[in-house]
Amino acid sequence: MDPFVHLHVASGYSLKYGASHPHDLAARATEAEMDALALTDRDGVYGAVKFAKACQATGIRPILGVDLAVEPRIVTASQNKGLNRNGYVTSTGGSTSAAGGGEPPPRGPKKVPDPVNPPVNPHYRPNGGGGGGWRGGWPAPHPG
Questions:
Q1: 133 Cβ contact partners less than 8 Å away, ≥ 6 residues apart
Q2: Which of 24, 29, 23 is nearest to 7 (CA)?
């Protein structure tokens, strides 16, 4: 058996990142005399069950994983002030905001609702609209 194991393999369930069916992947690993193979589909484990069953049928140990796409985060030097090399806030300064440093966004004055003239909801219908049916239904036609 070959000691090398592919740990980054995408099946056809990864749409544009892979094309092979999990059964084909297991068959090719058997041909290469591999004893284990990983399946790391993009953003999900959609082919995991079929892959595990195919590996079991061919005697290969399945290794399951997922390749998650995340949005890259670029931290500038000014945002990095007060953060240690791992991105955590140091005790000498910095910010605990999720943006990774810098000042939190400015907030405007707090809006207090006016009790005399409350905001108008255009979707509000008293008593559910009065048309009958589930949750009041549509408003009844005007009699004139």
A1: none
A2: 29
